[in-house]
Amino acid sequence: MVSFPITEVTETWGRPTTTTAVPAERFEQYGERVPGYLLDLWRELGFAGFRHGLLWLCDPEQWQPVVDAWTDDLDLPFRTDTWIAVSRSAFGAMSLWGQRTGMSLTIRPWYGWISPFDNSADMEEPFDRDVQILSSLVADAYDDALDLDADDDKPLFKRVLKRLGPVGPDTMYGFVPAIGLGGAMMPERVEIVDAAVHLQLLRQTTPRTILNNPYL
């Protein structure tokens, strides 16, 4: 049973600008591990990219090594969990679903920032789990939540998109050199890079910081 229509997402983000069909085995692998609404999105939209790659619905199997690297041995206020990537941005920000704590982690890897929020109280009912997925995707659409402000205080995404073109399901915009290695957050310092490789590199070079305010 569908809790919400797919149009709740497409009216917010628009139709996908690119998409990859979800392999049938993903529904078997994750049917008991993620909310039904996320499965409905996969079924209807695929592993979709919106607004020329600003937001992506993730293939969790592809992203699991990155998720594991960033969540390994985290000292969180609500203890550990097992996380799956739900969505990510063109710059590699990841929103993660925890088996026990729901939509409980957001990772901004260019700074190493990890924002935790315990949603374990809203995991009993399928409707409540679906609400978490929808709320996360809708919240990302407003106030340029997935864009970044460059060092010149101007938004980055459209400038980088114009300069380099869109990222794909396996790529992202990365700062070269990385911010943690002294790189500048400017459009001319951005390259299209292999997402998994770059995020693993950032994990090795950027210390993780757990933010007390999950809305930062």
TrEMBL record:
<dbReference type="InterPro" id="IPR014983">
    <property type="entry name" value="GAD-rel"/>
</dbReference>
<dbReference type="Pfam" id="PF08906">
    <property type="entry name" value="T6SS_Tdi1_C"/>
</dbReference>
<dbReference type="Pfam" id="PF08887">
    <property type="entry name" value="GAD-like"/>
</dbReference>
<feature type="domain" description="T6SS immunity protein Tdi1 C-terminal">
    <location>
        <begin position="140"/>
        <end position="204"/>
    </location>
</feature>
<dbReference type="InterPro" id="IPR015002">
    <property type="entry name" value="T6SS_Tdi1_C"/>
</dbReference>
<feature type="domain" description="GAD-related">
    <location>
        <begin position="8"/>
        <end position="108"/>
    </location>
</feature>
<protein>
    <submittedName>
        <fullName>DUF1851 domain-containing protein</fullName>
    </submittedName>
</protein>
